Amino acid sequence: MKKILLLSILAALALTLIMLITAGCKKEEPESDKIGAPEDLLTLTPEYQPGTYRNFDKIYNTRTIRKGTTTYPLPNASQPLTSVKYSPDGVNTYDIDDFVERNQVAGLLIIKNGQIVLEKYAQGNTPSSKWTSFSVAKSITSTLIGMAVKDGKISSLNDNILQYLPEMVGTAYDGVTVRQLLQMSSGAGWNEDYADPSSDLVKMFQALLSGEAGGILEIMKNLPRVVEPGNIFIYSTGETCLEGEVLRAALGGETLSDYFSRKIWANMGMESDAYWLLESPGGQEFAGGNISMTLRDYGRMGLFMLNNGVVNGQSLLPANWIQDATRPAADSPQCGYGVLYSEANGAAYPYNYPLGYGYNWWSFPESSWGAWDYLEDVTWWGEDAINPTNKRLTNLEGSYEAEGIFGQFIHINPAQNIVTVLWSTWSSSWIDPKEFEFYCFMDAAAEALK
């Protein structure tokens, strides 16, 4: 009996030990993503933004952008960027962790000379997370149009879009060129207000939610013409959707996603499949936004631009395309530096916005940013941005970027050979002081990397 009792005690002790070891090794299951309702995308609270932004394919209709069999290497630099000190207001100094916390950063990647010098994930993201791009996709759409010109599928940017979309005859887009679409200078009226339920942008989003093929095109057909084409800049997501329709017609049956995969995604060696929001089940890509990809693949897309569109020794874009696409044209003063949201474009905002506009790319001046000197209204830019002690940000001269609402960026700095990717969950669609703080951070990072 004593022997049986002893064996029972030993067995119990062994079982207890196993349970303790198992409990100690057990990985805590991550909290399930909180995914917002499809109709709430433009008004999500911070609680629902991360889960929604990385699960677009579970909420909306999407099409896969297939990766290839090889992967473009992104090695870690031998000397990572561990310290950045920046000061938006010229008084308070912040570091990398401060930047992440102050700006609701969900992902941050800096690539210098083709190597990763800084990579951070937050808000539940990991290297395998695929985060939606919002309007960053506009810059990709224009790049695909550039490739279609190189391939002879679009004969010229000066083509009348009726050449590709004859159904637009008699509309505000009758007589508009492909180039004017890329510059958002068609002359058609458009209201991009994300908070106004009667705005053109919200009507377009409602058409997308309905899942009806051609719904967005019908909205574009009914827009008024407010000025003659080529005279003023009016930011319009609908305009980029028309670019997608032109591209769809030019490709003659190949989808935008498949063309993107064939020309860049698989060809260059992205590490993961991406996916693109669709207007309807199995329908047209929403060319105005929402391609989802990993943080590093965002970075590779930036490197494609930094490398002048050359993949495996082959140039995929027309000569001078990068220069033309990422700078305001001399013959398009409405897209110039400091005028985009000014009275010159009928905006009558109380400040000048320093950046210019190319072909769906935002452009930084190549000399000192004098336009910051006109930022005098605190209600727009905050106390930090109007302080006169820190406005030049000379390390960003000649840079250009793709921008998406709620704080999504691919920033390309050719002079410093740097690509920066930022994912954010801003509390509203655009926060000017956070935009300015991002630029201050990047200016300081570029200085630290010299």
Number of helices: 14
Radius of gyration: 24 Å
In the CATH hierarchy, what is the architecture at level 2?
A: 3-Layer(aba) Sandwich
Structural class, from helix and strand content?
A: alpha+beta
Q: How much of the sequence is in beta strands?
A: 5-15%
As laid out across the biggest beta sheet, the strand order is 3-2-13-12-11-10-9
The CATH homologous superfamily is called DD-peptidase/beta-lactamase superfamily
CATH topology: Beta-lactamase
Which runs of at least 5 residues are low in confidence (pLDDT < 50)?
A: 1-30
**Spatial gap, N to C terminus:** 79 Å
The number of distinct β-strands equals 13
CATH class: Alpha Beta
Percent helix among the residues?
25-40%
Largest sheet: 7 strands, antiparallel
Assembly state: single chain
How does this structure look, described?
With 450 residues, the protein is α+β, with helices and mostly antiparallel strands. It has a single domain, classed as Beta-lactamase (3-Layer(aba) Sandwich), CATH 3.40.710. The chain has 14 helices and 13 strands. A 7-stranded antiparallel β-sheet has the order 3-2-13-12-11-10-9, with helices on both faces. It has a 4-stranded antiparallel β-sheet with strand order 1-5-6-4. Helix 8 packs across helix 9. The longest helix has 24 residues. The chain is globular, with a radius of gyration of 24 Å. The chain starts with a helix and ends with a helix.
